[in-house]
Design a protein that fits this description.
By secondary structure, the chain is α+β, with helices and mostly antiparallel strands. The protein folds into 4 domains: 12-48, no CATH class; 72-190, Jelly Rolls, CATH 2.60.120; 194-326, Jelly Rolls, CATH 2.60.120.10; 348-376 and 383-616, Transferase(Phosphotransferase) domain 1 (Transferase(Phosphotransferase), domain 1), CATH 1.10.510.10. The protein is 29% helix and 20% strand. Strands 9, 10, 11, 12, 13, 14 and 15 form a 7-stranded antiparallel β-sheet that branches. Strands 16-17-18-20-19 form a 5-stranded antiparallel β-sheet. Strands 1-8-3-6 form a 4-stranded antiparallel β-sheet.
């Protein structure tokens, strides 16, 4: 653990919660300490002022170097290695040519001296390697297993499965390898790249039937497109068959046939950025296909999207088109629990700082007031330089995109976004009751079923709302639940949120809240959020997460072993324990809301005193109402005093931040 410094304190959890000491602290030098006994601590009500450490999301810092220049022969060796990998390419792999090219583009060259180890058995996987020159010895338990030579690659399987290396690898001689870090590796394999999203949006812009979509909606749609490859002679559409899928041909050639007669020939090229679309009416209704579309080139590549996925992502296209024709806005108005803007547009120059609410990974969250209205907001700032340096641009882009699309009384509201030379800003709703983690610590609410029912019910409504819009949050935990002045909960921090039509493979979140499918990197969807709800319920009842450990690898092992490794489960009560068991099922499809629907979750006996209609209307009495004296009251927040040091940002002309207003 890190050394303690002047100004640090320790022992607070033992005083507040009667916990057994969780660590031994030894003086490394001569020190001077101030101490308080339990009685004096309680007399001074210091539990209201102690800041309990927040858990960090499980995103490790891994060094990524700039890509190295490559000769054509080096590129070919790397591409061959990727395609011949039994894990990535070959007969069982599914590596796309575009993904292989992207991996090669980002890899850097590294020299490894003789006998130098690049992988140690038991360590977590951080890098993927392709051998350019030299040789490496692969060992298991000190026993030689294989010699790796130029054109071989290694390290990919542990990266994909987020597990420790099963082998050690060391250079037999001075060797050269190509390297890519874990995050870039997985982003390429499991995510539509940013430049591809913009390319796909360009294709969507040419589809007249989609003209009613906003830029954000086209972005969501682009991220949901599936790339498919067809061989010569394959029939993509068949005349007379009912269809529900829309296609964009972006590479290759197809012929269009009606009653067996050729009526058109469509050609597309990635080099010339030409594309054609067909089957778009399937997004409106299940009408029989009017023509047959057959591949005539050796291969044809298309992007596909089905109507069910589109409807779940954006709603009915027919209603979207009708709303545009009627001049109606599709945003919900006058929704209970949703703060109205004081003006149609809130300008940053009209906002003044009140005080610090919190400190994030990329900047501060500050309470700001409007000069001309009695309203305050939370202004979240993110250093562009830090976002680029840590390769976390997606964090703020995801948050902006997801929050722009939601409007719920149980989710924090986004009003505006701003940008200047060095910083991005999100202007958010201010919930001045503090966060749930601090509330339960200060007020000793762990185990209070009345409180736990209320907050988990609110979280249930928030998650259900998101899932109906194909959004998964992926970071539900007490620190990310804010309390309003009226005592209601608001889900916040959407930096890890994602629009998912099928599955995502990104590993992220707080390790205590990882689901088994996240640990195994087997792909996850909305069922992951229901797992995190089960962990939240357990923690609020027991005072600690079910799989807690100071060692992340031990946490992951306990998660895979299941609840038999969870302490205190029988002690939290029969009803909460039963619901926890139904949510913390190893198989995502077996979790209660996934298996039987959201109604069955609401009907569980743990919620027998909950009136869901009253809760949705914000008429259910909150069990706790924070003491908030005014819209400028900061008393329920205890931010740390260490702000991240901004990194200088130099505009790279990629316009990645263009969607933030300036």
């Amino acid at each position: 653990m890190r050394p303690s410094q002047a100004g640090d304190y320790f022992g607070e959890r033992s005083v507040v919660f009667d916990e057994v000491r969780g660590a031994t602290i030894v003086a490394a030098t001569a020190v001077c300490l101030l101490s308080l006994n339990r009685e004096k601590f309680a007399e001074l009500r210091l539990e209201d002022y102690v800041k309990f450490a927040d858990r960090k999301t499980g995103v490790a810092t891994i060094e990524a170097k700039p890509p190295s220049e490559k000769t054509e022969s080096e590129r070919q060796l790397m591409l061959s290695a990727l395609q011949e990998s039994s894990t990535l390419g070959g007969k069982s792999g599914s590596l796309l040519e575009s993904q292989a090219e992207a991996l090669v583009d980002l890899m850097w060259k590294q020299t490894v001296e003789a006998r130098q180890a690049v992988i140690t058995q038991g360590n977590m996987a951080d890098y993927f390697y392709i051998i350019q020159a030299g040789s490496f010895a692969l060992q298991e338990g000190g026993i030689p297993k294989e010699v790796l030579k130029p054109g071989d690659c290694f390290g990919e399987l542990p990266l994909l499965q987020l597990r420790p290396h099963q082998h050690s690898v060391a250079a037999k001689e001075r060797s050269t390898v190509w390297v890519i870090d874990r995050w870039q590796f997985k982003n390429i394999l499991f995510k539509v790249p940013e430049h591809k999203v913009f390319e796909y949006i360009g294709y969507l812009d040419r589809v007249q039937i989609l003209d009613a979509l906003s830029l954000d909606e086209k972005t969501f749609t682009a991220q949901a497109l599936t790339e498919m490859t067809f061989e010569e002679g394959d029939v993509i559409l068949k005349q007379g068959e009912t269809g529900d899928t829309f296609y964009i041909l972006f590479d290759g050639e197809v012929t269009v046939l009606i009653n067996g007669n050729q009526v058109a020939r469509l050609q597309a090229s990635t080099e010339e950025l030409t594309a054609h679309h067909f089957g778009e009416k399937a997004l409106l209704s299940s009408q029989p296909r009017a023509a047959t579309v057959q591949v005539t080139s050796p291969q044809a590549k298309v992007l596909a999207l089905d109507r069910i996925a589109f409807n779940q992502l954006l709603g009915s296209l027919e209603e979207i088109i009708q709303a545009q024709e009627d001049g109606r806005t599709r945003a919900t108005k006058n929704l209970k629990g949703v703060t109205a803007k004081p003006f149609q547009k809130i300008f940053r120059k009209d906002l003044v700082g009140v005080g610090l609410l919190g400190v994030g990974q990329f900047g501060a969250v500050e309470l700001v007031a409007h000069k001309y209205a009695e309203e305050t907001f939370a202004m979240k700032s993110c250093s562009k330089g830090l976002l680029v340096k840590t390769k976390k641009k997606d964090v703020v882009l995801n948050e902006k995109m997801a929050l722009s699309y939601v409007l719920s009384p149980f989710i924090i509201q986004l009003f505006e976004t701003y940008s200047d030379d060095q910083t991005l800003y999100l202007l958010l709703e201010a919930a001045l009751g503090g966060d749930l983690h601090g509330l339960f610590c200060r007020k000793k609410l762990y185990g209070s079923e009345r409180h736990v029912v209320f907050y988990t019910a609110g979280a249930t409504l928030a998650l259900d709302y998101l899932h109906k819009r194909r959004i998964i949050h992926r970071d539900l935990r007490p620190e990310n639940i804010l309390i309003t002045t009226e005592g209601y909960m608001k889900l916040c921090d959407f930096g890890l949120a994602k629009f998912v039509v099928e599955q995502s493979h990104t590993n992220c979140g707080c390790p205590d809240y990882y689901a088994p499918e996240m640990v195994l990197a087997s792909g996850h969807g909305s069922a992951l959020d229901w797992w995190t709800l089960g962990v939240l319920l357990f923690e609020l009842m027991a005072g600690q997460p079910p799989f807690e450990s100071p060692n992340p690898m031990q946490i992951f092992a306990r998660i895979l072993h299941g609840l038999r490794k969870a302490p205190y489960l029988p002690e939290i009560g029969r009803a909460p324990a039963d619901l926890v068991k139904n949510l913390l099922r190893k198989e995502p499809a077996d979790r209660l809301p996934v298996r039987l629907g959201i109604a069955k979750l609401k009907d569980h006996r743990f919620f027998h005193d909950m009136n869901w209609s009253l809760l949705a209307d914000l008429k259910f009495e909150a069990p706790y109402k924070p003491n908030v004296r005014s819209k400028r009251d900061l008393a329920n927040f205890h931010p740390g005093n260490t702000l991240p040091v901004p990194a200088e940002y130099k505009d790279d002309s990629t316009f990645w931040d263009k969607d933030f207003a300036s």
